[in-house]
Specification:
Structural class: alpha+beta
Largest sheet: 4 strands, antiparallel
Number of strands: 6
Number of helices: 5
Radius of gyration: 19 Å
Distance between the termini: 69 Å
Number of domains: 1
CATH architecture: 2-Layer Sandwich
CATH class: Alpha Beta
Helix content: 25-40%
CATH topology: Alpha-Beta Plaits
Strand order of the largest sheet: 4-5-1-6
Order of helices and strands: HEEEHHEEHEH
Length: 182
Amino acid sequence: MRSNKPRVRKVRTRAPFLPAREKRLAKEYAQMAIRGLLRAPAYISGVTLTCAQFLPNTAGGRAWLTREVLSAEIKKFLDRLNRLVFKQGYRRYGKQLRRYSAIEGGDGSGIHLHAHLMIEQPDPKRISWFEFCKLLRRTWEQSEWAFPDTYVDPCAQEEATAFYLSKCGPDAIDLENCYFGP
């Protein structure tokens, strides 16, 4: 016997659909870009920025963290970092640290939203690696969404780093905050 209830189809909601071949090519392209940044004659640090998933708002509810909000926070973080490292050279001449940014988690995946970045370390004669790590942590802690757990590691193995940062596919790349230099 058939019931009179209409059949409900489940619809998957995801980022724009990419065929498997295009998704594979996009992932390979991202890995090539990361490898290019790692092979450059500079010291590169891998940074993981952890975030609060929600903040209390003025209405007594919660403001939830989204990819767009996290991308904007990363932009503010990178602006502050570039100002601290390059001083007036950032504003006057547009000097910036080269970087790659990927946002992971969220979208019902069960993983808290967080960001992975590869950031070029400034000249070691100017700022030591330990001072740069402290600067990264202090700068990220100025964000209202920041958790104090900020992980900074030197990128020693380029293949492993390229694979890890591109594991979430092309949808995870935060193009707004990537900068590979002039």
